[in-house]
Amino acid sequence: MPDSRDRRPPCSAPARPAGTRNYRAPRVAVGDVAYLEVVTVNETGAFLDWGHPRDLLLPYGEQRFRPDVGKRVLVVVYADQQGRPVASQRLDRHIEDESCGLAPGDAVRLVIAEQTDLGFKAVVEHRFWGLLYRDDVTQPLRRGQRLSGYVKRVRDDGRLDLSLLPPGSARLDVVGDSVLKALRESGGYLPLSDKSSAEEIKRRLGVSKSAFKQAIGRLYKHQRIVIDGGGIRLVPGSQESGER
């Protein structure tokens, strides 16, 4: 008897030509958190494209809402009692609040889960929850996005605060490069200074005001920029990248 995981027209959703996909998933493994497309919905549950020949079952009991064909859902892949890979939208059953084995400054893999009042909740190394505060978000983020980040702080309760920028001087190098790039693209001058609002700095450069102030101080010290009234200007000869 054919297995319900085999690709076939869905019972309760519009059929599509066999083998076609709106989105081709990267290959996902048991233990991974991933944002996967729903390809079939029937009486068994939803089936997801996870980059393998047979689709991945998302049982009704593991759904937070009834997904539609063609939509994508954030799930964790785990092995059921029979050892078969299945998906769950109920990440809190599988992702730990308290981390272990991580320290401030560690580079980590992130999967963005959802936006909160404080920032963005993310899954760290497919195992732990972490939080990116709004002030540490340097680029637009979306659910299911995979990106690299860093452990900013491990709280007393083991929960993780995260950053998209590396710690220490490496962080200033990244922000400094962003400042120099923006200066070159704007003809060598930016109307930003340490007196500019945090909102304006974030809007123009995607970094916090404190990171911006530290970075321009470093660039000024290394004679890459001059601070000119209400803005900053490239030093002649800094149009090309060079030694810091």
Describe the structure.
The protein is α+β, with helices and mostly antiparallel strands. Helix content is 16%, strand content 30%. It contains three helices and 13 strands; from the N terminus they run ββββββββββαβααββ. It has helices spanning 168-185, 198-205, 209-221; strands at 33-41, 45-49, 56-59, 72-79, 85-88, 107-115, 119-124, 128-133, 146-154, 160-163, 189-190, 225-228, 231-234. The strands form three sheets. Strands 3-2-1-4-5 form a five-stranded antiparallel sheet, with no helix packed on it. A five-stranded mixed β-barrel has the order 6-7-8-10-9. A hairpin with a 3-residue loop joins β7 (119-124) and β8. The longest helix has 18 residues, at 168-185. The protein starts with 32 loop residues before the first strand and ends in a 10-residue tail after the last strand. Residues 6-20 and 240-244 have low confidence and may be disordered.
